[in-house]
């Protein structure tokens, strides 16, 4: 009886089929016309008031001093800086330097607090941003709006300090509303661009923190732009860079409103206005293109 020979092992195919491509999920969204985006934004301003009020209440509800903390901390920082630089470093006459620093730190502290919080606002509000529709441009404006009461109180205190230092009464006090609006717009637009970018890269949080740290020294808070008596001023070679800083226009307009004088106010305001126009264009176009997709990435 003949035993059948074992079957030969199957030879591998000489032309193996190519590997199947891996599937990649690509999120795309519809383009929202800028005109429609702005109409939706105008129609939801009551939501901005509601969310801003809620943010304000939740921030100070459990604090004994409440809103006063937002005023006391920048004021304390301004006093410390004024004392150190006027007495220890030789910043100049105390009666001139103290109101200069206090008025500058008032505007800067508002910008710093509003931008540092608003730059992560979309991700922080992911619980509601990904469930219901509303213009996401409202979210970066919440922090800037909730900080307005503290800014107003700080401006009153800064004006009292300036008045007590001999600055006197000036008609420029009527400019205070313009300074507040300018500060609010800058904080909102910077936060709007940063918060949308933060959805795609969580590194933006730290980039904003580092940027604010650098911009503090690039903003005329602790030094004069031009020489005033015995007070040291910024070297002339650095002035164009400082004037180009968008925060400089806000700080100088606030200082002008409270003291009646601010160096290089015109060029600083032109620079800030140019930044606002550019940031507004970037924000509107970016949200028109990526707002819907950003919500799916939360």
- The helix count comes to 13
Radius of gyration: 27 Å
User: Number of folding domains?
Assistant: 1
Question: What is the H-and-E element order?
Answer: HHHHHHHHHHHHH
Helix content range: 55-70%
- Mean pLDDT, all residues: 79
Low-confidence spans: none
Termini Cα gap: 75 Å
Q: Quickly give the structural class.
A: mainly alpha
Largest sheet: none
Broad shape: globular
Give the beta-strand count: 0
Beta-strand portion reads under 5%
Explained architecture:
The structure is a single chain. It is globular, with a radius of gyration of 27 Å. Helix content is 66%, strand content 0%. It has helices at 34-43, 45-60, 68-88, 94-118, 121-124, 126-129, 138-146, 148-164, 176-200, 204-217, 239-244, 246-259, 265-296. The model has no long low-confidence stretch (mean pLDDT 79). The chain has 13 helices and no strands. It has one domain (34-56, 66-296). With 298 residues, the chain is mostly helical.
């Amino acid at each position: 009886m003949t035993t059948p020979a074992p079957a030969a092992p199957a030879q591998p195919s000489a032309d193996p089929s190519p590997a199947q491509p891996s599937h990649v999920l690509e999120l795309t969204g519809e383009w929202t016309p800028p005109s429609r985006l702005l109409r939706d934004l105008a129609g939801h301003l009551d939501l901005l008031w509601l969310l801003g009020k809620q943010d304000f209440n939740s921030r100070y509800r459990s604090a004994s001093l409440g809103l006063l903390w937002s005023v006391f901390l920048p004021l304390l920082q301004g006093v410390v800086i004024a004392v150190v630089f006027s007495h220890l470093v030789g910043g100049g006459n105390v009666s001139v330097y103290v109101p200069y620093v206090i008025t500058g730190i008032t505007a800067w502290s508002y910008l710093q607090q509003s931008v540092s919080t608003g730059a992560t606002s979309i991700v922080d509000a992911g619980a509601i941003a990904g469930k219901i529709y509303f213009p996401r441009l409202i979210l970066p404006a919440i922090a800037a709006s909730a900080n307005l009461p503290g800014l107003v109180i700080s401006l009153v205190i800064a004006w009292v300090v300036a008045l007590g230092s001999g600055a006197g009464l000036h008609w420029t006090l009527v400019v205070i509303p313009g300074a507040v609006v300018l500060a609010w717009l800058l904080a909102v637009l910077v936060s709007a661009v940063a918060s949308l970018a933060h959805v795609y890269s969580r590194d933006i949080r730290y980039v904003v923190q580092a940027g604010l740290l650098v911009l503090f020294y690039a903003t005329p808070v602790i030094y004069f732009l031009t020489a005033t008596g015995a007070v040291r001023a910024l070297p002339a070679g650095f002035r164009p860079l400082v004037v180009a800083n968008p925060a400089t226009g806000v700080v100088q307009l606030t200082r002008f409103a409270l003291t009646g004088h601010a160096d290089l106010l015109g060029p600083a305001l032109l620079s800030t206005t140019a930044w606002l126009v550019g940031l507004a264009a970037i924000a509107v176009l970016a949200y028109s293109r990526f707002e819907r997709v950003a919500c799916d990435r939360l």
